[in-house]
Amino acid sequence: MEKKMAAFHADLAEIVFQGIQWFCIDPTSGDHEEYDKETNVIIEKAYSKKEKSVIFLLDDEKCEIVFGKMQETNLNTKETIKVIRKDLKVDVSVPEYWEPQPRDVNGKELTVHLVTLNPNNPNHKNEYKNISDHFCQTATQQILHIQRIQNPSLFRAYLVKKQSLDEKHGSNEKFLFHGIRANKINDINEHGLNRSYAGNTHGNDFHFLCYK
Predict the structure, then answer these.
(1) Its Gene Ontology molecular function terms (predicted)?
(2) Cβ-count burial of 115 within 10 angstroms (0-12 exposed, 13-18 middle, 19+ buried)?
(3) Closest alpha carbon to 93 in 41, 20, 190, 17
(4) What is the rounded distance in angstroms from the CA atom of residue 186 to the CA atom of residue 192?
(5) C-beta separation of 39 from 56 below 8 A
(6) 3-class DSSP state of 3
(7) What are 103-109's contacts with CB under 8 Å, separation 24+?
(8) What mean pLDDT do residues 14-35 have?
(9) Band of the pLDDT at 204, cuts 50, 70, 90?
(10) Residue-wise DSSP of 101-168
(11) Which of 99, 154, 106, 151 shows the shortest CA–CA distance to 127?
(12) With the C-alpha atoms ordered 21, 25, 26, 30, is the resulting torsion angle positive or negative?
């Protein structure tokens, strides 16, 4: 289960990094309603492979999108609806203050690079203070050290999603601090947080919080 979800999350990060979102068009209002993340991944993977159509479950109903018609058909009711594919790309450069991402022996850029922030280093001082100030507003634990997680793929995915949410709801970004078991840190650094693990089934294993 864990490997399956990690693989899905990696696919999701790649597709969001590409800045692609699929929508169905409400025939009455003309509003664009986005597909959920998992369905978006399924549709985009089929489209990228140049398949003629893709079948998926939506609210327990079997649906098919025929890419040539850009049309979704409910295979149970035979109702049809138009769909569109939007490119949401933004400038996805990593921050200039990031350190160069190390490379492996084959010259491939590492997925994750951890940078320990030094509050006495002029290049780290402001970043360290900003994070520690936010943390101390709601937490009483002693800060042992702060690390910047440099994962370019996840950072670009975050930028694309942030732009999409800002356009819909305005910017209301908040700092959130998250408890996690030590043996799960590497998975999160590489693949990001996965809300599907929240709750009674996986919550205690992956983190101490449940999302509402």
Answers:
(1) NAD+ poly-ADP-ribosyltransferase activity; NAD+-protein mono-ADP-ribosyltransferase activity; transcription corepressor activity
(2) middle
(3) 17
(4) 9
(5) yes
(6) helix
(7) 109/152
(8) 79
(9) very low
(10) PPB-TTSPBPS-EEEE--TTSTTTHHHHHHHHHHHHHH--SPP---EEEE-HHHHHHHHHHHHHHHHH
(11) 99
(12) positive
Statement: residue 205 has pLDDT above 60: no
Q: What is the DSSP letter of 83?
A: E
- The Cα–Cα gap between 2 and 184 comes to 11
Coil, strand, or helix at residue 24?
strand
The residue assigned the tokens 């597709």 is 15
For residues 89, 84, 196 and 5, what is the CA-based torsion angle, rounded to 10 degrees? -80
Q: Look at the block and give the residue holding tokens 């990228």.
A: 48
The two three-digit tokens of residue 91, written as one number: 């400038």
Predicted TM-score (pTM) of the model is 0.56
Task: Walk me through the domains of the chain, giving residue ranges and CATH numbers.
Answer: 1-87 (3.30.720.50), 113-211 (3.90.228.10)
- Residue 113 pairs in a beta bridge with 150
How distant, in Å, are the alpha carbons of 60, 96, 155, 173 from that of 161?
26, 20, 10, 12
3-state secondary structure of 80: strand
d(CA 152, CA 19) in angstroms, rounded, equals 14
- Count the neighbouring beta carbons within 10 Å of the beta carbon of residue 42: 20
pLDDT of residue 23: 92
